[in-house]
Automatic annotation (TrEMBL):
Protein's organism: Micromonospora vulcania
Protein name: Aromatic acid exporter family protein
Compositional bias segments (type: Basic and acidic residues): 389-398
The organism's place on the tree of life at top rank: Bacteria
Chain ranges of the Integral membrane bound transporter domain: 65-188
Compartments, as annotated in UniProt: Membrane
Compositionally biased tracts (Pro residues): 406-419
Coiled-coil spans in chain: 231-258
Pfam families according to UniProt: FUSC_2
InterPro entries named in the record: Memb_transporter_dom
Length: 419
């Protein structure tokens, strides 16, 4: 549509007279997108706050207890390191807090030893501080220490060099405070305020599984309507799933740690087995769905046939993901999710029998493979899942082995689906 080149005053006058606003639809669409983006951003921020709420309360309680014990019980007049150590331990990735406590104490010990030894040799000052930090980092790296130990050793060496001239006998309180802070952090997470591991995992898994289900739904609609743009958008959204998967995997590790350290959560160990085993197959389902959607884009571009059961199969996969999320969250055996995965494979078999092109056959193959991943995520062994997939797919007619009839154009190759 040609752009209106009249002056703005004339355009506004024309609008008042009832003429068509050629820019109104575009502006309204852009405004709606901004409004939706604002709602999505607020929703994401509130979700992050809910995810971090338990950690924030744990950190506050641990810092207060560490300060109280160091100051009132141990008589430390300036108990700075104990609450810092407690918060530092809780700030570690969930699932690594016990390890972080050990690393914290080891780093403090190394930093104290290196700092005291070099102060004895070269004294204190600016250049001495630089030497102490350099030596602490190089020695811990040479010893094969983790990054956390290296940082803690260097930070402790800095404190020893800078505070030793004004504060006597700093080494022992620093070591005791590191041990105290880490111990209090573990006490809070394991005994005083242990988080519900299943609730933590459910909250972390929800974004990843919702993302997967939503993009499968979008792909099914896009195939049914031959809307390439919507399928392409689904592919782009699914590709940005690293944060969701990383959060999910981290939550599983944290839940296993809580169930191991907290007596109040020991009865949850068996329930965590499902989630721990589901992380890898869900990751594979994400990757295979990405291939499915990418081939769906090509299918539309090449104007290949889309039998009605094909979008239905993808829609059943999406519902299987949602059922898996729900049944895990309530602690039920995911029977409904398994049934819906097999229904997706059955519909895929009908679509294949109706006739598909090359990209269509790849889409069918990825429906089978993704369904197999979801079955494994639900607790089925891989071999049994493959057998169920084959049974649900059925014996569909395959393209004839012979060449095309005389006078007919050659048919595109069809890759038989594999599970």
């Amino acid at each position: 549509m040609a752009r209106d080149k009249r002056p703005p005053l004339m355009r506004r006058t024309a609008l008042r007279e009832g003429l068509v606003d050629i820019d109104g639809a575009r502006i309204a669409e852009a405004t709606e997108q901004l409004r939706h983006r604002g709602r999505a951003t607020l929703h994401d921020r509130l979700h992050r706050v809910r995810m971090a709420g338990g950690l924030a309360v744990q950190a506050g309680l641990a810092a207060g207890l560490a300060y109280l014990i160091s100051h009132k019980v141990l008589g430390n007049p300036q108990p700075v390191f104990a609450p810092i150590s407690a918060v530092g331990t809780l700030a570690a990735s969930v699932g690594q807090r016990f390890r972080r406590t050990v690393e914290l104490i080891a780093g403090v010990g190394i930093g104290v030893g290196i700092g005291d030894f070099l102060i004895y040799l070269v004294g204190t000052g600016a250049w001495q501080l630089g030497v102490v930090v350099t030596v602490a980092i190089l020695l811990t790296i040479f010893a094969g220490a983790s990054v956390a130990i290296v940082i803690q050793a260097a930070a402790t060496a800095v404190l020893i060099v800078t505070l030793s001239p004004s504060t006597q006998n700093l080494e022992i309180p620093r070591f005791v405070d590191a041990f105290l802070g880490g111990g209090v952090a573990l006490l809070v997470t394991a005994v005083l305020l242990p988080l519900n591991p299943l609730r933590v995992i459910n909250r972390a898994a929800r974004p990843a599984l919702d993302l997967l289900a939503a993009q499968l739904d979008a792909t099914a609609d896009g195939l049914r309507n031959r809307d390439r743009a919507s399928v392409q958008r689904a592919l782009e959204r699914l590709r940005n799933n690293k944060e969701e998967l990383a959060t999910f995997a981290e939550a599983i590790e944290g839940a296993k740690e809580t169930a191991t350290l907290s007596p109040a959560r020991w009865h949850r160990r068996s329930e965590l087995v499902h989630y721990a085993a589901a992380a890898d197959p869900i990751d594979r389902a994400m990757r295979n769905t990405g291939t499915l959607i990418r081939r769906s884009v090509t299918l539309i571009e090449d104007d290949e046939p889309v039998p009605d059961p094909m979008p239905d199969a993808i829609r059943h996969l999406a519902e299987s993901v949602r059922l898996l999320k729900h049944e895990f969250s309530v602690g039920e055996d995911p029977q409904k999710a398994r049934e819906r995965s097999l229904r997706a494979v059955s519909e895929a078999g009908r679509a294949y029998g109706a006739g598909v092109g090359f990209s269509g056959s790849v889409v069918i193959a990825q429906v089978r493979t993704t369904a197999s991943d979801l079955l494994v995520a639900s607790g089925i062994e891989q071999e049994e899942a493959n057998r169920c997939i084959r049974d649900a797919f059925g014996e569909q007619e395959r393209p004839a082995a012979g060449g095309p009839e005389p006078g007919e154009p050659p048919k595109p190759p069809a890759a038989p689906p594999v599970g």
